[in-house]
Amino acid sequence: MKNFNIPFFMLDIDNYQLITSPVAIPSDIKDTKEIVLSEIPIPGRNYQPIVYGGGGNRKLSFTLQLIKRNDKVGNVLMLKQYDMLRNQAQGFQNPFTGSFVPTPKVLFYWGVGSIPLVYWVKKCDATHKQGWVNRYGMPQYSELDIELWLDESNPLYMAEIAFRRISAIAGMIETNIGIAQGKGRTMI
Questions:
Q1: Residue 23 or residue 66, greater confidence
Q2: DSSP states of 59-121 as a string?
Q3: Distance CA 117, CA 121 (A)
Q4: What is the pLDDT of residues 131-144, one digit of tens each?
Q5: Rounded CA separation 144/26 (Å)
Q6: In the CATH scheme, what is the code of domain 8-152?
Q7: CB neighbours of 129 closer than 8 A, spacing ≥ 6?
Q8: What is the mean pLDDT of residues 43-57?
Q9: 116, 151, 155, 159, 174 from 162: Cα distances, Å
């Protein structure tokens, strides 16, 4: 049986396109979620009570390296898929968009330990590398800086909450079994 690996992919929901590549995978994925705390100054106290002010949005950011040494179009065909993410969503039926049409959302899960979730595309900036241009002036090596913001209003997020709770309990059980078996201090 051959080894099976799920390739990196994003599903551009609004433009109806699957963005994937067997060679372009994200660099380190930074996964952040702000915890909002506030200090309440009270005169005469030696400390300030802390008040929880809510949670911020979950944000993923990473860099993709798109390399395609092609004599004709370079990596332009891949770049245009990502270019669709930073413009108003059009789909395939409407070549022109009107006012108040947002940028696309993507279905993404690769490498972050979550179920597939819907994210807003906040950033999709390209840096085209000097010296990697073919004879027709087309880029062959570009780095894309991508930032995605989780859409917690999407129904898939409810499934993520359940997955998080079940996985946390399973993780606690697995860790305690490992400790009881003397596997608590193994190196990676």
A1: 66
A2: EEEEEEEEE---TTTTTHHHHHHHHGGGS---TTT-SS--TTPPPPEEEE-TTTTS--EEEEE
A3: 12
A4: 999 989 999 999 99
A5: 9
A6: 2.40.30.200
A7: 139, 141, 142, 143
A8: 91
A9: 13, 16, 12, 5, 18
Q: How many residues comprise the chain?
A: 188
HSE-up of residue 177 (Cα within 13 Å, Cβ side): 6
Q: In the chain, how long is the greatest CA-to-CA distance?
A: 73
Q: What is the pTM of this model?
A: 0.83
Beta carbons of 69 and 131 less than 8 angstroms apart:
no
Q: What is the pLDDT of residue 95?
A: 61
Structure tokens at 48: 């300030």
Can you read off the two tokens belonging to residue 144? 């894309």
Lookup: tokens for 9: 């992919």
Mind listing the pLDDT tens digit for each residue in 87-117? 877 766 566 656 667 788 999 989 999 999 9
Domain ranges within the chain, ordered by starting residue:
8-152, 155-188
The whole-number pLDDT of residue 187 equals: 54
